[in-house]
From TrEMBL:
InterPro entries: OPA3-like. Belongs to the OPA3 family. One of its GO terms (biological process) is regulation of lipid metabolic process. This is OPA3-like protein. The keyword Acetylation does not apply. Residues 159-178 are annotated as: Disordered. Transmembrane segments: none annotated. GO terms for cellular component: mitochondrion. Keywords: Coiled coil.
Length: 210
């Protein structure tokens, strides 16, 4: 909605700036023969010729094959028109330069944004790979402790089966010691499983920035 008022304001600024440029060109043309003859008048005469020729073409004049002569502008009129064309040309050049600068700035901004996003993605992938490796390492340790726990329980059952009734007291002490060892290994396994769960929960949390 605010584009049209800004466009009108920009057009008004261009018109106001072109007036002093045209005045400077006129004063320069009065004082400089070279500027008047080779800078202002040739573009003005060419513009006048194109404009008249286009009007004659639209009005269906000059199509009979007879070459019609287009009168040249007077020196004052050519200087006036050339000064106006020069002012508008300068303003157009400034507008093109500003537009080119803005386009280049936007491209540079987008490039920096893409580089930052790519760096974040690379960092995120590295972190996910590290967490995955830690999770696999914990899985290996949990499986090893589980295997040792089953082996220890099997040994306890074997010793219990071979123990005679006369050594019940000694076997009870061995069982209590082995049960303590088993509870310790169970606590270690539980701690490793809990750590693995935390690592797995950490991976989706770091997928997107906060």
């Amino acid at each position: 909605m605010a584009v049209f008022p800004l466009a009108k304001l920009g057009t008004l600024v261009i018109k106001q700036v072109s007036k002093p440029l045209a005045s400077i060109a006129k004063n320069r043309a009065k004082n400089s023969h070279f500027f008047r003859t080779y800078v202002l008048m040739p573009p003005a005469q060419f513009y006048h010729w194109c404009e008249v020729r286009m009007k004659m073409y639209v009005m269906n004049l000059g199509r009979t094959g007879q070459s019609s002569t287009i009168p040249r502008l007077s020196e004052e009129a050519a200087i006036e028109l050339g000064a106006n064309l020069l002012g508008e040309g300068v303003i157009f050049g400034i507008a093109v330069a500003i537009l080119a600068y803005e386009v280049s700035r936007q491209k540079e901004k987008e490039k920096k944004k893409e580089e930052a996003e790519q760096a974040f993605i690379n960092n995120l992938e590295t972190r996910i790979n590290e967490l995955t490796f830690s999770s696999e390492e914990l899985d290996t340790k949990v499986r090893e402790l589980t295997r040792l726990s089953y082996a220890l329980q099997s040994q306890l059952k074997t010793k219990e089966a071979k123990t005679s009734p006369s050594s019940n007291r000694k076997s009870a002490e061995v069982l209590r010691s082995n049960s303590q060892i088993g509870s310790s290994s169970g606590a270690i396994i539980a701690a490793l499983i809990d750590a693995r769960s935390r690592i797995i929960e950490e991976i989706p949390r770091s997928t997107f920035p906060g």
